[in-house]
Every structure is written in structure tokens, then in C-alpha cells.
Design goal:
Rossmann fold, seven-stranded mixed sheet, 43% helix
Length: 218
């Protein structure tokens, strides 16, 4: 099972929360342009980073106070592991907060099962380093969620995917089973893609371990 992180595993988008707190409001213009499909994700990240000013210690303090794990995730992850099902986090977010929260919440992911971008804070500035997939086909994504899912399928795996945003839309076209919320759910409805809506991971767990095809939406 492949999970998005920001706004999927977490209650809120961590990247947006950090930039709302530590960047000047001008960053929202690049954020809007990306979601309006005017610029690529990479262009948006580089533009938004120009407006960030924050210190690492304050960022971690912010994360401890504000970041929240979505209900039922830890239980689902443990149940998947107990059933011999591999879980991966594939995120267009950044390790500077993602790795910190995975450890803080004791989620138990192996390093090889977390795929995301890298970032450092240097002199108060957010410096991104992108892990751009070599076969990337979509400017809405950068990490290559759809491409990674195809690779797993090429190894013979049945791949379920859970996501919530615009960068998850390519993955929704290729995953064998899609759990969606927010923008991704709206997109799936528009494109008439079959998906399972969810608010918490208790619903995802119920579907996976007590399947009911009537819960699927289109």
C-alpha cells in the first residue's frame, strides 16, 4: 500500500502549515498558480521557497505543537505489516519534517519505504533538493507517484493508494485500488475514476479487511 503524507497521513498539509507560519504571504501566489495548473510543482516549490524565513528549532517546535496524525493510521499500518503487506510513504513533501514526524509518532517505517524530497534550513532559508523521478510524465507531480506504482506493479504487486491532493491525481489513474479525500476525491469524480472515499484510516482498514464493493464511488 502506498500512502501520500501531507493531508493524507496527517490531518493537515504540513508543508502548507509551515509556510503559512514561516513564509511571507506572497508564497500563496505560487501555491495558487500550481493548483490552477499554470506552473509545475517544481516551479511552485522554488518560487515558494524564496519567501521562507525560519529556524530549524522553531520548525520542530511548531511540528510538535501543531502536526496531527490522522485517526486510525498507526493501527492500519500495524495491521498491514501483520498481514505481510508492505507500506510505503511516497510524498512530494520534504524529509526535514516528514522524517521528524515519522520518528516522533513512532510509525515504524524503514528508510527504504519512505520516498520524498530533501530540504535543509540554511541561514533561515528553505533550500529544497528534489528527488525527481527519472521517468516522470506529469508536471503535477515530481516524486513520480504513478511511476513508482507502475514499478511495483511490474514486480507483480497489487497496489492500493491513498491520497488527497492534486499531486496524487496521476497515481489515481494507475493504482489498482484508490482511497481518496479532498481534491483527489473531487478529481476522481470529475474523471469518473473508481475510488473509495475516506475521512479516517479506520474506514480504509474496514474496507481492506472487510471488503464491501458497494462502498466504491465513481
Amino acid at each position: 500500500m502506498v500512502f501520500d503524507f501531507d493531508g493524507t497521513i496527517t490531518e493537515e498539509d504540513i508543508f502548507d502549515g509551515l509556510f503559512s507560519r514561516y513564509a511571507s504571504p506572497e508564497f500563496w501566489e505560487a501555491h495558487r498558480a500550481y493548483h490552477d495548473r499554470e506552473i509545475s510543482m517544481k516551479e511552485a516549490y522554488l518560487a515558494m521557497a524564496e519567501h521562507f524565513r525560519g529556524e530549524r528549532d522553531k520548525i520542530y517546535s511548531f511540528l510538535r505543537k501543531e502536526a496531527r496524525l490522522r485517526e486510525g493510521f498507526k493501527e492500519l499500518h500495524h495491521r498491514l505489516a501483520g498481514a505481510g503487506i508492505r507500506s510505503l510513504i511516497v510524498s512530494n513533501g520534504f524529509d526535514i519534517y516528514l522524517d521528524y514526524l515519522v520518528k516522533l509518532w513512532n510509525l515504524g517505517f524503514k528508510d527504504r519505504d519512505i520516498i520524498c524530497h530533501h530540504a535543509e534550513i540554511i541561514d533561515g532559508r528553505f533550500i529544497p533538493s528534489f528527488r525527481e523521478h527519472r521517468d516522470l510524465r506529469h508536471t503535477s507531480c515530481l516524486i513520480g507517484k504513478a511511476e513508482i506504482i507502475r514499478e511495483l506493479q511490474g514486480e507483480g504487486a497489487f497496489v492500493a493508494f491513498a491520497g488527497n491532493g492534486y499531486s496524487d491525481t496521476p497515481a489515481a489513474h494507475v493504482a489498482d485500488l484508490v482511497f481518496a479525500r479532498d481534491r483527489l476525491a473531487d478529481y476522481c469524480r470529475e474523471e469518473r475514476l473508481t475510488f473509495i472515499p475516506f475521512l479516517t484510516f479506520r474506514e480504509v482498514e474496514s474496507y481492506l479487511f472487510m471488503p464491501n464493493t458497494e462502498n466504491a464511488s465513481r
